[in-house]
């Protein structure tokens, strides 16, 4: 296997979900070239993935919003880049028409995808020469890892590996030594939200514990919500509007991340940050984060968590940090001269 194409086009959370698959492929085929097709709006994370040789990033979302010559030119450029190489295998782990069209355009004798019953758009099956085997009741991340491993004939390790490098900021963040906690309260749909009053109570308690609360936002409405939270949480900071890279750098510099089922909370877990993810309307078992001693998902579809649930989860994911600090203090004390 000399060259492999992975297709996962959107969105940020799905980009993070695909990282363990990239690590598997790199481990199974250490000499292979691995390319990844992702929409230009989400291409940052693939570009940080260790093991990816080339990211092909057509501006599909941009063209949908604005059918300009610039966006059309970006898509044509991506198609030329795609067809410049011949692939031994193409794996479409997205499963919609736009990803299937990318698979079909790729120059490869083997194009793998899900069966029609598992596709977001069943007609996408037209593009595949081979159908992934059954995946059972697996998480979205493990499902991708398992079906591709079975299709290409390699073994996967039980533990997931997220190998990525976020670019360093121009100047160090949080240099004052005060631990930051980022609260990702915004969601893509109203049904997935958690009450503002509950966020305030969590923020107030975390501030009392010594965290400086940071509140990111992505729209004017989210900024207004962040400002309302900051008005009630001592010392809270409403962050400026940031790029994906700038938010990722803040996440990488944080001591704790608490938020809804969003891409940046998934990224926090991938970066090894103590993370708590809240669910209110989607499936925590399938989409959640569950890294032992590091991350926890609470709540579920139709069963939102309480404030007490969130604070207990924070205690759980930060316990290793506290234990490590106590152990280090004890070791330093034992080594000090009498």
UniProtKB/TrEMBL annotation:
GO MF: transferase activity
Domain of life: Bacteria
Pathway(s) per entry: Bacterial outer membrane biogenesis; LPS core biosynthesis
E.C. numbers: 2.4.99.23
Pfam family, one: Glyco_transf_9
Protein name: Lipopolysaccharide heptosyltransferase 1
SUPFAM superfamilies named among the record's database cross-references: UDP-Glycosyltransferase/glycogen phosphorylase
Localisation: Cell inner membrane
Enzyme category, top tier: transferase
Organism: Cupriavidus pampae
């Amino acid at each position: 296997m000399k060259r492999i194409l992975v297709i996962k086009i959107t969105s940020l959370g799905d980009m993070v979900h695909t990282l363990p698959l990239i690590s598997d492929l790199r481990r199974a085929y250490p000499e292979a070239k691995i390319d990844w097709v992702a929409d230009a709006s989400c291409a940052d994370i693939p570009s940080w993935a260790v093991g990816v040789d080339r990211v092909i990033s057509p501006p599909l979302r941009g063209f949908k919003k604005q059918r300009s010559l610039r966006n059309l030119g970006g898509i044509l450029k991506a198609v030329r880049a795609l067809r410049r190489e011949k692939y031994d295998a193409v794996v479409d782990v997205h499963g919609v028409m736009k990803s299937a069209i990318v698979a079909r355009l790729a120059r490869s004798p083997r194009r793998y995808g899900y069966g029609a019953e598992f596709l977001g758009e069943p007609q996408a099956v037209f593009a595949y020469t081979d159908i992934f085997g059954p995946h059972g009741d697996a998480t979205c991340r493990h499902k991708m890892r398992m079906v591709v491993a079975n299709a290409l004939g390699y073994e996967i390790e039980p533990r997931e590996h997220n190998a990525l490098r976020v670019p360093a900021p121009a100047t160090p963040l949080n240099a004052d030594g005060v631990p930051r906690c980022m609260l990702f309260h915004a969601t893509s749909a109203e049904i997935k939200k958690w009450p503002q009053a509950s966020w305030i109570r969590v923020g107030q308690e975390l501030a009392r514990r010594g965290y400086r609360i940071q509140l990111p936002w992505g729209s004017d409405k989210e900024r207004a919500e962040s400002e309302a939270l900051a008005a009630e949480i001592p010392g809270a900071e409403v962050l400026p509007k940031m790029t994906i890279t700038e938010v990722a750098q803040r996440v990488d510099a944080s001591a704790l991340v608490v938020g809804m089922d969003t891409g940046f909370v998934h990224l926090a877990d991938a970066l090894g940050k103590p993370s708590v993810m809240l669910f209110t309307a989607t499936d925590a078992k399938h989409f959640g984060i569950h890294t032992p001693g590091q991350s926890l998902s609470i709540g579920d579809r139709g069963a939102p968590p309480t404030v007490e649930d969130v604070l207990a989860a924070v205690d759980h994911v930060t316990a290793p940090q506290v234990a490590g600090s106590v152990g280090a203090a004890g070791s330093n004390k034992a080594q000090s001269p009498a």
